[in-house]
Design a protein that fits this description.
The complex is a heterodimer. Chain A is mainly α. Chain A has 28 helices and 5 strands. A 5-stranded antiparallel β-sheet of chain A has the order 3-2-1-4-5. The chains are: A mainly alpha, B alpha+beta.
C-alpha cells in the first residue's frame, strides 16, 4: 500500500525541490490505482477508463513545473530529489519492489508519457505481477517495449564473476617497430594477403532487387511455422542418427514437446508430428521395436481418454477459441477410438464457441470412421451411445441400422427416441422396418415419433400395429397429439380401406344417437384428409357443418389439405 | 531544466558501476531525427535537380520546414552535429539503416566538406532559409578547405539568414562519446563471454543454463550495435586463443547483429538473431573436449563427432528449461549454420526445408570469424580481406551472395582490426568502415606508427576519405600488413 512520504529529517541537507513533493506523491498514488484498475477491468469498463483519465490528469501538475521527472528506487521507496515520495513496506504489493527486484534503480518519465506510453507500462506491470519465474522479467519486457518517454537505469543482477577487459597497452618496446618502408619492400612473406585490386569498390551496395530479396526472406522467417520447422529437424535427426541414446532422447523430447504444443494450442503442428511419425515408422526399417512402438503409439496415446479429456477440458477453459482448420487437422490424426471420449465431452463443454469448433472437428472424424461410430452405438455409456446414434443417422449409415434397432429395446427412453430419429434419417427399407417396432413402445414420445415417420414414409408394414392402436382402447386415453399422429399415419397407410372406419367415427352415431368423443372425431377427420379419395372427401363434407368446434375445425383443415 | 541532461549522448551507458546501465527514451528523437535528415537530403537533391519554383522543390522545402518545426516544438532545440562517421540530433546519435544510409552519407559529406560541424536551427527557419542553407553549403567546395567555414557563414550573413547558428567540427565531444561507448562495449563483451562460457559449461555438465543471462547479454549487444557498433566490432579482434569457443560465439553474435542491423532488421528481430547467433555452437558442449582442442587433423570418427555439433545443438537447446518458450529460432540456426544455401553441407536433411535467413547470416559471420581467428588447429589465421574475397568469389562455400555482399559493406574492404600500410609509410589499424558508401576502400583508421616505425599509442584516428584542396586524398592504403611480422597485437587498440 502506498503511504505519504516521510518528513525529511531536519538534519539532512537537501536542496529545495523545484516544486512541492506532494504533487509527485499524488501522481504515484494515482498510478498505483491505475495499475489496480488495469488488472481488474477490461479497457471498455467505465471504472478503468475513469482511472486512466485520473492517471493522465495526475501528471499535469508535475508537467506544469518540469518536462521530466526522475525517481530513484529502493526496496520500498520511490524517491524524488532525495525525498521519499512513495513508501510501500509490504513487498508483495509494493510498486517500488517490483522495479527494485529486477535491478531497476531509477525511472525517468518525460512529458507526454502519460498520454502515449503509460498503458504500455501498465500492461507490463500486469504481466510481471502474474508471471512465473520462467517468464520474461520486467527488464526484458521494458527493453522489448522500447519506450520513448521512459528511461531507466538498472544494475544487472545476472552479472557475477565477470572478468572485465582491462585497458590494453602495447608491451614496452626498447626500440621502434621495423620501418614499414623497408619491411614492405620485401617479397610477400605469407599467403592469404590479397592485392587491393582484387576488391572492386563499386560492387558492395545492395540494389533494389537484393533489398527486396532480404525483405522477403525476413518476412518468410516470421510467417513460417518455426515449431514445425524444429519438429522436421528433430524427425530428420531421429531418422538419420541410428544410435539408441539419440533416438531415446528424441523420443522423449517429442513426447514432451507434443504436450507443450497441445497446451499452447498449436494443433496443426501436433497433427504434423502425428502424421510424420506414422510415415517415419513405415519408412525407417531399422527402427527398433521400442522406438517404433513409441512413434506409432503417439496418436494412440493422444487418443486415449485421459490425455484427450485433458485437452478438451483445457480448450473449454481457455479464453480463446481454437482455429478450426488446425483443430480439424489434429482430429484427423486421432484414432477412431477417440470418438467415444469426444462424444462424452461434447455434452459437457460450456464454452459455446469451443463446443461448436469441436463439434465440427468431431463430425469430420466420425464421418471418416463410421465403423467405430456404429460400434459406439452399443456403448454402455448412454451419452456416447446417444451421440453416436445421432451422428450415425446424420451420416445415413446403413451399417448403423441394426445397432439402432437394438437401441429401440434400451431402457432409456431418450436413447430410443434418438434411435427413432436416426433410423428415420437413414430412411432405408431396413431402417423403416426397425422403426415399426417402436409403434408400440412404452414411451409416448417414441411412439409418436415412430408413427409419424412411418406414416409419412408410407411404411405399410406398420399398418397392422397402427390399425390395432387406432381401433384399440388404449389410444382413447392418449393425448390429442398422439391420437392425431396415429390417425394420420393410419390414414396414410390404410388409404381407401380405412375410409369406412374413419367415416364411422366422424359421422356415425351410436346408441341413442350419441357421437364419438370430439378428439377422436377430429383425428378421424384429419386421417380422412390424408386419404384424399372421393369417399373420404364426401365423408368430410358431411361433417363440415358439425356443431362441435374442434371437429369442424379439423374437418376444415383436412378439406384444405392442411393436416397437422 | 533537466533537458540539458540530454546533451550527453543518452544512449551510452553511464559508468556509475561496472554493471550499471541506462536505457530507453530516445526513440522519438531517433525517429523524427531520421525523418529530418531524409527530408534535408530530399530538399537538397530537389534544389539541385529542379528550379526553385518547381512543385517538387517547394514540397520538399515545406516538409523539411514542418519536420524541423515539430522537432523544435517537441525538443525545444534542434542541433545537427556531424562528427566523424556519425550524425547527432540534439546529442542523440542517429542510426543508419537500409532505408536511410544513402541520405545520411550525403548529408554527412555535405556538412563535412563545408567545414561545418554543428548547425543549430532556431525558430523561424522557413523554406527561404532552408533554400539558402542548402544552396550555400555545397558551394563551399569551390574554395580552399580552411576557408570553407568562413565562406558558408559569410554568405548566410550576406543573405540575411539568421535562423542557423553554425560552428566548426567538435572533436572533444566525439572523443568523449567514443570513450564512453568503448567502455560500454568492453563491459558488454566481457559479460557476453562470461555468460556464453557459463551456458556452454552448464550444458556440458548436464545442467540447465540460465536463459535470463543469455537474454540480457544479447539485449546489451543489440543496444550497443544500434547505438555505436564500432567499439563492439573492434572487440571482435580480441579473439582469445584459450577461450576460443566462447569469444567466437560472442563475435559471431556481434557480427550477426551488426549485419542484421545493416539489412534493416527491427530491434526485436535483432534480438532473435542475436540469441540464435550466441547459441549457434552450443552443440559443441556435447563434443568431447579432446576433439574440440585437438591440434592435429581429425580422423574420420573424430570428424563425425565434430560435425554432429549442429544437430547436437538442437538437442542441447531442448535441454534449456526455466523459460516460457523454447528458443526455436536458435535451434534452427544451430542446425543449419553449416549448411550451404543449396542445403548441402552438414548435417544432412530428409524433409523439405528452406534455410532460414538467420542461418545464412550466422553462417557468414561464423565463417568470417572462424577463418580469421587463431585456434589450436589454425595457428596462422587468414587475413580478413582474404576471407572476404574467398566468401565472395568462391560459390562452393555456399554462402548467400546477398548476405556476403551486405557483410562486405558492413566490415568494408578492410575489416576492423586489419593492419595496413599507408602511402605515407605510416602503419594503421582499421578502426571503422567509412560511413560514406563510395568510400568503402577508405576506412577510418588509427595511425599507430610513423614512417620510421615509432610506435604511437593510442594513435590518431584518421578518415582516409579526407582530401586536400586539390581533391587529392591525404592518405591511401597501399598494402595490407601482417601484424605478426611487426609484433603488433591489433586488439590492443580496441581494448
Amino acid at each position: 500500500m502506498s503511504t505519504q512520504s516521510q518528513p525529511v529529517p531536519a538534519s539532512r541537507e537537501l536542496a529545495e525541490p523545484p516544486f512541492p513533493p506532494a504533487l509527485v506523491e499524488e501522481m504515484l498514488k494515482v498510478l498505483v490505482k491505475g495499475i489496480r484498475a488495469h488488472q481488474l477491468y477490461l479497457p471498455n469498463n467505465p471504472v478503468y477508463q475513469r482511472a486512466l483519465e485520473n492517471l493522465k490528469r495526475a501528471f499535469l501538475p508535475v508537467w506544469s513545473h518540469v518536462d521530466e521527472i526522475s525517481l530513484s528506487i529502493t526496496e520500498s521507496d520511490f524517491r524524488w530529489e532525495g525525498r521519499p515520495v512513495m513508501h510501500e513496506a509490504n513487498k508483495s504489493e509494493s510498486l517500488p519492489w517490483i522495479f527494485f527486484k529486477d535491478g531497476i534503480r531509477e525511472l525517468r518519465l518525460m512529458k507526454g508519457f502519460e498520454e502515449q506510453e503509460v498503458v504500455g507500462l501498465l500492461d507490463i506491470l500486469k504481466r510481471v505481477k502474474k508471471a512465473s519465474p520462467e517468464e520474461d522479467d520486467l527488464l526484458t519486457l521494458i527493453w522489448e517495449k522500447d519506450f520513448t518517454l521512459l528511461r531507466y537505469r538498472f544494475i544487472d543482477l545476472t552479472l557475477e564473476n565477470n572478468n572485465p577487459i582491462e585497458p590494453s597497452v602495447p608491451a614496452e618496446r626498447p626500440e621502434p617497430l621495423p620501418p614499414p618502408q623497408e619491411m614492405e619492400a620485401e617479397p610477400e612473406a605469407r599467403p592469404g594477403i590479397v592485392r587491393l585490386e582484387d576488391l572492386d569498390s563499386t560492387v558492395h551496395f545492395l540494389d533494389e532487387q537484393e533489398i527486396d530479396y532480404l525483405r522477403t526472406e525476413v518476412h518468410k522467417e516470421y510467417s513460417s511455422d518455426v515449431r514445425r520447422n524444429v519438429l522436421a529437424i528433430l524427425l530428420d535427426i531421429f531418422e538419420l542418427q541410428t544410435g539408441k541414446p539419440v533416438r531415446d532422447e528424441i523420443s522423449e523430447i517429442l513426447e514432451n514437446f507434443l504436450m507443450h504444443l497441445l497446451s499452447a494450442g498449436h494443433f496443426a503442428t501436433v497433427a504434423y508430428v502425428l502424421r510424420e511419425s506414422q510415415e517415419l515408422s513405415a519408412r525407417a526399417r531399422e527402427l527398433d521395436a521400442a522406438h517404433r512402438t513409441k512413434l506409432v503409439g503417439l496418436p494412440d496415446r493422444l487418443s486415449a481418454a485421459g490425455p484427450l479429456s485433458n485437452l478438451l477440458q483445457a480448450m473449454d477453459e481457455s479464453a480463446s477459441v481454437p482455429n478450426q482448420t488446425e483443430l480439424n487437422q489434429l482430429f484427423e490424426q486421432l484414432r477412431p477410438s477417440s470418438l467415444g471420449t469426444l462424444f462424452t465431452w461434447l455434452g459437457r463443454l460450456q464454452h459455446a464457441e469451443v463446443k461448436a469448433a469441436i463439434e465440427i472437428a468431431a463430425a469430420r472424424l466420425a464421418a471418416a470412421n463410421t465403423a467405430e461410430l456404429v460400434k459406439l452405438i452399443g456403448s454402455s455409456d448412454v451419452e456416447i451411445a446417444m451421440e453416436s446414434a445421432r451422428r450415425a443417422g446424420g451420416l445415413k449409415s446403413a451399417a448403423a441400422v441394426a445397432p439402432l434397432g437394438k437401441l429401440l429395446t434400451h431402457e432409456a427412453a431418450k436413447l430410443r427416441l434418438i434411435a427413432v430419429t436416426a433410423l428415420s434419417e437413414i430412411n432405408s427399407a431396413g431402417a423403416l422396418q426397425q422403426l415399426e417396432r417402436a409403434v408400440d413402445d412404452d414411451d409416448r414420445d417414441v411412439r409418436v415419433a415412430a408413427v409419424r415417420i412411418l406414416g409419412a414414409r408410407g411404411q405399410r408394414g406398420a399398418l397392422p400395429k397402427v390399425e390395432a392402436a387406432v381401433k384399440g382402447r388404449s389410444l382413447r386415453d392418449a393425448d390429442l397429439t398422439e391420437k392425431m399422429a396415429f390417425f394420420e399415419a393410419y390414414g396414410s397407410l390404410a388409404a381407401a380401406a380405412g375410409v369406412a372406419f374413419l367415416d364411422g367415427l366422424l359421422n356415425g352415431k351410436g346408441f341413442l344417437g350419441k357421437r364419438e368423443d370430439s378428439e377422436l372425431r377430429a383425428c378421424a377427420a384429419m386421417a380422412l384428409g390424408k386419404i384424399g379419395t372421393r369417399d373420404a372427401a364426401d365423408s368430410l363434407q358431411r361433417a363440415q357443418g358439425d356443431k362441435d368446434v374442434l371437429v369442424r375445425n379439423a374437418v376444415n383443415r383436412a378439406v384444405r389439405g392442411g393436416a397437422a | 531544466m533537466s533537458r540539458v541532461m540530454r546533451r550527453t549522448p543518452s544512449h551510452v551507458p553511464t559508468a556509475e558501476s561496472s554493471a550499471d546501465y541506462e536505457r530507453g527514451g530516445d526513440s522519438y528523437i531517433r525517429r523524427r531525427g531520421r525523418d529530418f535528415i531524409i527530408a534535408l537530403y530530399s530538399a537538397s537533391r530537389a534544389l539541385k535537380l529542379y528550379p526553385l519554383e518547381n512543385a517538387a522543390v517547394q514540397n520538399a522545402l515545406h516538409e523539411l520546414t514542418g519536420l524541423a518545426g515539430d522537432l523544435l516544438k517537441h525538443e525545444r532545440e534542434l542541433e545537427l552535429r556531424v562528427s566523424g562517421e556519425f550524425i547527432f540530433i540534439n546529442a542523440t546519435r542517429l542510426r543508419l539503416d537500409l532505408d536511410n544510409y544513402a541520405s545520411f552519407s550525403r548529408i554527412l559529406m555535405m556538412f563535412r566538406d563545408a567545414g561545418v560541424g554543428v548547425c543549430r536551427v532556431e525558430e523561424g527557419a522557413g523554406p527561404r532559409e532552408w533554400t539558402s542553407l542548402l544552396t550555400i553549403l555545397p558551394s563551399a567546395t569551390t574554395v580552399d578547405v580552411p576557408a570553407r567555414f568562413a565562406h558558408v557563414t559569410g554568405r548566410l550573413e550576406a543573405a540575411g539568414i539568421r535562423s542557423f547558428a553554425l560552428s566548426g567540427p567538435t572533436d572533444s565531444d566525439d572523443d568523449d562519446f567514443r570513450e564512453k561507448a568503448k567502455e560500454a562495449a568492453k563491459r558488454t563483451y566481457a559479460q557476453s563471454v562470461t555468460v556464453t562460457k557459463e551456458v556452454i559449461n552448464s550444458v556440458r555438465m548436464g545442467r540447465s543454463p540460465n536463459i535470463k543471462k543469455i537474454k540480457r547479454a544479447v539485449q546489451s549487444i543489440v543496444d550497443q550495435i544500434l547505438n555505436e557498433e564500432t567499439s563492439l566490432l573492434g572487440l571482435t579482434t580480441l579473439r582469445d586463443y584459450d577461450e576460443y569457443t566462447f569469444t567466437h560465439s560472442v563475435n559471431v553474435c556481434i557480427f550477426s547483429v551488426a549485419l542484421g542491423r545493416k539489412i534493416g532488421l527491427t530491434k526485436l528481430q535483432l534480438y532473435d538473431l542475436g540469441v540464435a547467433a550466441l547459441l549457434h555452437d552450443i552443440g559443441k558442449s556435447r563434443v568431447p573436449l579432446e576433439i574440440l582442442n585437438k591440434p592435429d587433423g581429425l580422423n574420420d570418427e573424430e570428424w563425425r563427432m565434430m560435425s554432429a555439433h549442429p544437430w547436437l545443438g538442437v538437442l542441447a537447446l531442448f535441454q534449456m528449461r526455466g523459460q516460457a518458450e523454447l528458443p526455436y529460432r536458435a535451434m534452427v540456426v544451430a542446425h543449419e549454420h553449416h549448411m550451404k544455401t543449396d542445403l548441402t553441407g552438414y548435417p544432412k536433411h530428409l524433409r523439405e526445408r528452406q534455410m532460414s535467413i538467420y542461418s545464412k547470416i550466422v553462417a557468414v559471420a561464423d565463417g568470417f570469424d572462424a577463418a580469421t581467428s587463431r585456434r589450436v588447429y589454425q595457428t596462422e589465421p587468414l587475413t580478413p580481406v582474404a576471407v572476404l574475397a574467398e566468401m565472395r568469389n568462391n560459390p562452393r562455400r555456399g554462402m548467400d551472395p546477398v548476405i556476403v555482399k551486405a557483410f562486405v559493406s558492413l566490415v568494408g574492404h578492410y575489416p576492423v582490426g586489419t593492419l595496413v600500410v599507408l602511402d605515407t609509410f605510416e602503419l594503421a589499424v582499421v578502426h571503422a568502415v567509412n560511413p560514406v558508401p563510395e568510400a568503402i576502400s577508405r576506412p577510418i583508421v588509427r595511425v599507430i606508427s610513423d614512417e620510421r616505425g615509432n610506435l604511437l599509442h593510442p594513435g590518431t584516428l584518421v578518415d582516409l576519405h579526407q582530401q586536400d584542396a586539390t581533391g587529392r586524398f591525404l592518405r591511401t592504403i597501399i598494402k595490407l600488413a601482417d601484424p605478426d611480422r611487426y609484433g603488433i597485437r591489433v586488439s590492443d587498440y580496441f581494448a
